[in-house]
Design goal:
Helix content is 33%, strand content 17%. It is α+β, with helices and mostly antiparallel strands and 165 residues long. It folds into 2 domains: 4-85, Ubiquitin-like (UB roll); 95-164, [2Fe-2S]-binding domain (DNA polymerase, domain 1, Orthogonal Bundle), CATH 1.10.150.120. Strands 2-1-5-3-4 form a 5-stranded mixed β-sheet, sandwiched between helices.
Length: 165
């Protein structure tokens, strides 16, 4: 049995074809091979959510996944969006990124990529969430600095911006 496998993925709109060890986690592939270091390695146990990305296979919509709990080979054929891929082609920030920046939804920034990616997924499914729904939607992501108040405010503001734009 081979310990490597060919992998073909689209990451942030760019196609990648690589040979990877079958035991390689998606988070390590994204950081070490593709160079998407905005996808943070937090706990490697799927508890913190810092490594969250959006993953789409086939015709299904992209869903947030903790990339430390997915083998890279499981993402073969998938489309992946990282926090770096949210910005527009001109470098303009995604509404969620902008809201986190403007409303101080971060302190150390370690959890921020995962929080942002989970918030994007939440707002796609629920464009008008209540504060409780925001907290529930982000419950798989841990922040040890902020107390979550500004994070919830940022998601609420991004929802309002996306509705009006």
């Amino acid at each position: 049995m081979s310990s490597t496998s060919k992998l073909s993925v689209t990451v942030d709109g760019e196609q990648y074809v690589d040979t990877v060890e079958v035991r390689t986690l998606l988070v390590h592939y994204l950081r070490e091979t593709v160079g998407k270091v905005g996808t943070v390695i937090g706990c490697d146990t799927s508890n913190c959510g810092s490594c969250t990305v959006l993953l789409s296979t086939g015709d299904e919509p992209a869903r947030s996944v903790k990339s430390c709990s997915v083998l890279a080979v499981q993402a073969d054929g998938a489309t992946i969006t990282t926090v770096e891929g949210l910005a527009g082609p001109d470098g303009s920030l995604h509404p969620v990124q902008r809201a986190f920046h403007e409303l101080h939804g971060l302190q150390c920034g370690f959890c921020t990529p995962g929080m942002i990616m989970s918030a994007v997924d939440l707002l796609r499914d629920n464009p008008h969430p209540t504060d409780d729904e925001i907290r529930d939607g982000l419950s798989g992501n841990l922040c040890r600095c902020t107390g979550y108040q500004n994070i919830v405010r940022a998601v609420r503001a991004a929802a309002a911006e996306e509705v009006t734009s």
